[in-house]
Specification:
The chain has 89 residues and is an alpha+beta fold. The chain has two helices and six strands.
Length: 89
């Protein structure tokens, strides 16, 4: 049951070296947009990321920027970016 992820900007997938950090960035951006308390992780992200539907996802309304401390990569997500995660069965 592989997990597949994509960030689409202006109808094109961002070329990323995918890893666990990228999924955490996507999750954190959605958490921030939904203003969900980190201390209470019972929020709708599990439902968002567990779908089989390859068209569902989340469109950002704010800018988010994150830096990977392990290698210095910076990922900036922009309003309108579509975060798209699905499971392949």
């Amino acid at each position: 049951m592989p997990l597949t992820a994509k960030i689409t900007r202006n109808e094109e997938a961002l070329p990323l070296r995918w890893g666990f950090w990228h999924l955490m960035v996507m999750t954190e951006a959605v958490r921030e947009e939904l203003e969900v308390d980190k201390e209470h992780p019972d929020y709708p992200l599990l439902n968002l990321w567990s779908r089989r539907d390859t068209q569902s996802g989340f469109t950002l309304t704010k800018e988010h920027s994150y830096r990977d401390e392990s290698d210095g990569e910076v990922l900036t997500l922009l309003p309108g970016d579509f975060l798209h995660v699905w499971r392949e069965f």
